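Standup, Tuesday
Yesterday: got the pipeline producing C-alpha cells again.
Today: sanity-check two examples.
Blockers: none.

Example 1:
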Amino acid sequence: MSNQRDFHRLFSPIQIGSVKLKNRIIQAPMVTRLGAADGFVTAKEKRFYLRRAQGGIALATVGNCTIMPNVQPEDRHDAIWDDRFIPAWKDFVAAMHDYDMKVSLQLCHAGSQSHFHVTHTEAVAPSEMVSPVTGEKCRALTKGEIEEIVEHFAAAAARAKEAGADMVEIQGVQGFLVQNFMTPLFNKRTDEYGGSLEGRMKFPLEIVKRIKKRTGRAYPVVFRMVASDLVEGGITVEEAKRMAPMLVEAGADALHFTAGAGHHVRHLGMPPVDAGQGCIVDLVAQIKPFVDVPVIVVQRIITPRQAEEILEKGQADIIGLGRALVCDPDWAKKVVDGIPDEIRRCIGCCQGCYDEVRAGRSWTCLYNPEVGKEDEYEITKTESPKKVAVIGGGPAGLEAARVAALRGHDVALYEQTDRLGGQWILACVPPRKEEYLEVIRWYKNQIEKLGVKVLLSKKATAEDIAAAGSDVAIVATGVTPILLKIPGSEDLKVVTAHDVLAGNAGNVGNRVLVIGGGMVGIETAEFLSEQGKKVTVVEMLDEIASEIGIVRKPYMNQCLSDHGVEIFVSTKVERVSGDGVMVNGKECGKKNIGSFDSMVLAVGARPRDELARTLEGKVAQVHVVGDALKPANALAAIADAARIAREI
C-alpha cells in the first residue's frame, strides 16, 4: 500500500503558460480511429476521453486534429479546419472540464504520410519525394503554399480557443509535415526553408509565432518534437538541443518529446515491450537543461514509481502516458486511492492499440476490452445471481471469472494445473516478453479481491460441474498442439513448441529444426537460439510470423539475425533420412538441409472443447470462449470472454 504522499512530485501542480494543471499526469496524443470520416468528434470518442477524465489525469491531448481539408493521416479522424466543428468541440471540452481535466487539441498536417485513398489528394512535403510509408509520390510545396499552411495552423488554433480548449499542441513528430521540414531526411530544399538547421526550423517557428499572434501571448502552445530521429541522417540529440530553445523563444510554452523519424520506423516512434521501459527518457533528459519551459516525456512509462523517479531526477517536468492510460484509465486515481498495485499495466504488446488501428479498425486493448466501447462494455450488477463455473485459468477464463464476479455471480474457477495463466505463461517465456506476466499478476489480484473460488490442480468433469449446482458453465480450456507425422522422423526426437517453452522437452541437442514459422515457431526459435542452439526454421507460407505486428517485428528480425537462425519460407519438410532432412521450397527447390538433433513442431493447434460437449444437458447454460471455441489470440479470447460474462 502507498498513498499520494509517496508520489508528491507526480501530484504537484504545474503551469503550462497561463494554464495550471492539477497534477503532472497527462494523456499523450494517440490515433484512436474513433472520430468520424468527416472529422467531427463522435459520442464514442467523447466517452473514451471522458473515461480518462474520470480517472483523475490533468490534461488530455486529442491527437491529429487536421488544420485544413484532405490532410488527415487516417480516414476516421478529428478536424478543426472550419467553424462548423466548433460547437461539437465546445460540448466535448465542457464535458471534460466537469472533471477538472484540461483539453489540448493537437494541430496536424500529415504531409508525406497522408494516403491518396484517404484524402483523394496528392500528398505534399518540403521537397519532392516518395513517401517511405505510403510509397506514393509527394509534391514539393511552393513558398506561397507554405504561407497558406502557416495561416491554417493559426486559424485552427483560434477555433480551438473559441471552442474552449485550454491549449493547442503542434504536431511536429510522426513523420508528418512539420517534422518533414525539421529533419534533413526529408527536407532537401535550397531556399530559406531548407539547408541549414535555421532554414529547416523556419516553418515550425513561423507556425508558433503566427498562432501566438492570432490567439494572444497568454494562450498556451505546446510543441511536440523528437529528441532524435534515431536513424542515420536524421535529427540528432545535439540538433534537438539547438531546436528546443528556438521554439521556446518563438513562444512555445512547453515541449513534448518523443522520438523516431516517422511511421516507417514505427518500432521507434511507438516502442513495444522489446524497447524496454522509459526508452527515451535519457534522450529527453539531455535536452531539458537547454529550455526553461515544462518538458513532457512519453514512451513506455508504465508505473507510478517509474514516473515519480523521472520527476525526482529532473529528467522531465510532466509525464505523458499513452497506452498506459488506454490499458487503465484509472491509473492516476488508483495512486491517489493508495492502490497502485491494482493498476492494469500496459505490457507493450501493441496488439489492441497500434496493430488494430493499422488494420483499419478502431483500437482496443489486449486485456481491457472496454477500450473504444466504453458505453457497451459497462459492467452492471445482475438482478438474478447465478452459480457460474469457469473451466480453464488462461486469459479467457480469468476475464470471464472477473466479469462474472463483478456482476454479482457466485464464481468458481477450475484449473487443471497448479498455477493460473494457461498458455499465456508460455507466451511470457520468449526473449523480451517477461513483462507479459503482468497480465496474470493483475488477473490473480482481481479475482482474489472479488472472492472468486479458485480450484487449482483440478481437472473438472461434467459431473463435477453439475454436482456443484452450477447454473452456467464457461468453458475456456484452450487448445491442444497439432502433431505432424514426418516420414522418417521416428528415430528423431520430436517435441512441440509448447513443450519447449514449458520446459518439458528435455535436452533438444544443439541443432534444432523448427517446423512452422508462425509467431509460436519463431518465438521458440528465438528462445532456443539465445541458449546457443543452432536453429533452422521451415515455414510453408511466404512470410514468417505474420501475426507479429510491425512495431515488434524489427526486434524479432534483429534477434534472428544476431543468432544466425536459418529460415526457409514457402518450403515444406518432405522426409527425414540418415543423410538429413529433405525439404522442397519455391526458391531452394528440393534440398537436403542437414541433420538435426531434434525437431520442434509449431504447426498450429486445435480447440480443446471436449468438456463442452459432455456438459450439454447437465448444466442449463454452456458457453465456449477463447481458443476452445476458435484458436486465435489473447486479444480475441479476452474480448470474447468479456462479452459472454456480461450477458449471462
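Example 2:
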Amino acid sequence: MKPRLDFALYAVMIAAIAHASDKVVLTLAGCVADFRGAVDTYVAEDRASGSTSVGPQVAKTPVKFLSGRFAKAAAKLEPLSAREEFRRATRIHDLIASTVGVVDTPKSVESVLDRLASALPEGMRNRQWDYRVTVLDQETRDVFTPGGGYLVVSQSMVDELLQNEDALAFLLAQQVGHVVRGHCRRRYQLSDIRKRLSSYDLPDEASTFWRRRIGDLVQEDRRTGLRFHFDRAEILETDLFAIHLCRNAGFDIESGLDLLRMGVVAGSDDLQTKLHTMMPACESQWDRLASLLPKSQDSTVSQSDRLDQLRMDVDGFVPGQDYGLFEWDSASESFVRLSGPSLSAGERAVVCIHGMDSDMGKYRPFLTSLSQDERARDMRYLAFRYPNDQSLSRSAQFMMNNISQVIPNPEDVDFVCHSAGGLLFRYYHEVERGPFRRVIFQGTPHHGSSFANLRGLSEAREVLGDLHQGPLAALMHARHDGRGQIKYDLRPESLFLDYLNQDREQRHLDRYYIIRGQAIDSAALRRVAVSADLLRPLIQWRVDHWASRDAKRPDFTRVINRLKMPQELVSGDLAVSLESATIDGAAEVVTVSARHARLPTDEIVIQKTIAMLFQTN
C-alpha cells in the first residue's frame, strides 16, 4: 500500500506519541514553529531578491502584455448561462468518471466541503447546482474542476490530505473559487470562440495567434474532453478566495497554508538541507517528505510565489514607502510619512482614511479647515494611505501594524473614513480589536455596493491618466496597485462583508457616527424612473428583432425583466445606498445632499465632521 503523505507533519508526529509527556509535546510544537518560520523566511528572502515579486510578464513588451488579455476579455462578452455551464460540466464530469473510474468519497471530505459551501454568502450560491466532490481511482496526484459545482480529486491526493482537514479545505476552496469567479465559464466561452474562428476568413498569422492564445487556456483531451489551465492572475485570485472562505468557515489558515509550504520544501534542496540542520530529529520525516513530493511543479506560478502572496495578505504586508501613515503639515500643505513612535502619550490625533480609487489628497480641504479650528489647535493630523486594489483585510492589517508602530495611544485617536476606508477601520476595530476614540463614516458601504462591478471604468481612467508617463509606466503602475481583490470585497454579500458583519461583542456603536449622501432629488428620480419604464419595451423589441431565432433569447428576456433602478441611484449617493451606508445602533446618522465622490470635500460635510469630532455625549 502506498504510504500517505501528511502535509501537517506535526499532526502525524503528535499522533505517534499521543501518550508522551508534556515536555515532548511542547518540543514538537517548537518544531512546528521552526518549520513554518523557516519556510516563510525562505519565501520572504526569495521575494527580497526580486525573483518572485515582479513575475514573468514584466519582461514582455506592453503590446504583448495587453494581447495576452484580449482573448479573456472577448470571453467575458460571450453570454453563457449557469444552466449551460452545468450541462457542459456534467458531460465532462461523467466522461472522466466513466473513463478513469471513481471510488466512494470519504465522509470526512464531504463534511469539509459542506462547511465550505455553508460559508458561501447567498449571492455566491448558484441555484443550478450543489457542490460535490468526486474521487478518481488513480494514483497520480491531481485536483481540478470542470465547473458546474463539480470538484474532482484523485484518491492519492485525498489520502495524503485526510490527516489535515485545513489543508484539504484550502485545496477544495480554491477549486470552488474557480467556479465562483467564473474562470470555468470563461473557458467554455473561449472554446466556443475557438470553434468560430475556423469559420472566419482571418489571415493565417492572426488565426494561428488567437488559436495558440486560447489553446494555452483550454486544451482538448480525447479521453476526458476539455481540460482547463488557469493563468497566474487567476491562480493568485483563487488562492485569496480560498483563504478568505476557509477563514469564514472556521478553518485554520496557517495549517491550510502548510500545503504550499510543503511544496516549497519539495522544490528546494537548499531549504531541505537547512531544515535538516535546524531539526535533525525530524530528518527521517523530511527524507520521506522529499521522496513523496515532486521536485518541480508544472505551473504558471511557483508554490513559493503563491505562498508569498498569501503571507502578505495574512500578515498585512505592503512593500515600498508609498503607503502607510502620513502626517499633514498645514504650513507646507503636504504629507510626510511617519515611521516609528511619533505621538506622545495622551496626545490627541485624527486619522483620515480615503476610499477606493482615491488618496489622501481628498482630505486636504478638511484638514485645512480643521487646522484653523481653535479646538483642534493641539491635535495631530494624520492620514493613512493603502493600495487601491488589494484585499480590505490585508489593508486593515497593514493599518493595524502601522498604528501599533507609530501611535502609542490609539485610544485617543479619532478616525474619519470615506467609503471603503470605513470598512478598513471596522476590520481594524471589530476583528483586530484596535482601540479608538471616535469614528466618523462618510458614505461607507457597510453592506456593499452593486456599483463595485463597474470599477473597471475607474481603473481605465487611472491608466489613461498615467499615459503621460509612457505606456509601460502606466501599465506598471496598474500592476503595482494590486490584483483587484477590493472590487470583490465591496460587492454585497462578499466573503469580506459576510465575515465583517458577523455578530461580535466588541462593537462600540455608541462611538460610530455616520454621514451619508443623497445625490438625486425626488423630482429627478421620478423623471428617470419614467424614462426607464419607457426604455424597457424598446430594449425588448430590439432583442426580439435581433435574436428572434437565438436560443439565448429567453435569457435576454429574463435580464430585461429584472432591469430596475439601483438603490444607489434611487436612494443613495450614486455609489452607496442610504441603507448600506447605515449601521443600526450608531450614535448619530446624518443625511446630506451630496454625491459619493464629493463627500470628503463638501463644505457642509466638512463642518458636520468637525462638529462630530468635538461633540460631547
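Quick observation on example 2: The chain is about 50% helix and 10% strand. Confidence is low (pLDDT under 50) at residues 1-25, 52-71, 288-298, 455-483.
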